């Protein structure tokens, strides 16, 4: 039986999906952040469900392909407890090679069928376009996703890393439940134009990497080891002088966290949660201890003064390095 934690609603009207206030990003259980850990992933998902963290996030590209199988295995017998989200469009080969972004309608349908099979379910609760395909009108992609809803394969649809214009055009075809994009104390650019559009249209926000890919937890003190994707130039914030500068910001957060009797990661996650009841972050981990720490952020209450102190400790523009070394696939 799962423990009770609060819920939030993504989307409005017929596009409203009730989910746990905190979700779980499952990607790192299978790839990118060090050695994959299948057993650890299963244990973490099971513990998440027991705690009431029932909003699970994966993608067909993660692994590639094996993360959906892991999630499917973990929720077997507990499907009714879960709000299941996955994504399509970032195509990869069986060898892991990146094959580009594909938003063609035929890809939408075939990718969904493949995800359903790997997950071992008959429907997906929230199906995202992982990246916008600049060669395909968004109306065509969303039109195909709408057909999945009509077929009962998908309940709600979402976008990831989409610009305000793309969001509006997509919404004109079919209601959008959520936008998934990076958002944290270290990444706040969406506040300028994207967040106002989401609020205008009644679309929820699902921040990924709400802990800055681990930087905001305070557990990272040096450059990641070889084999960890954060050690590559693709993540400039973890490199050399940029990392040194960013760790000084984390030290400032640590001081504020100590005053609250919580960890830096819990404080950073509480900040994201405080940005609105339509915001549902999905911190990723493959370890039960970190999952439990993240859930503890729900007990951290931030006053207006606390929020101002955090803004002063981490001013927008103070973070050194882009969030990705290559932003060419980000719709801006």
Automatic annotation (TrEMBL):
Gene3D superfamilies: NADP-dependent oxidoreductase domain
MF (Gene Ontology): oxidoreductase activity
CDD domains from the UniProt entry: AKR_AKR13A_13D
Domain NADP-dependent oxidoreductase residues, every copy: 22-311
Superkingdom of origin organism: Bacteria
Gene Ontology CC: one annotated term: cytoplasm
Keywords: Oxidoreductase
Protein name per the record: Predicted oxidoreductase
Protein source organism: Micropruina glycogenica
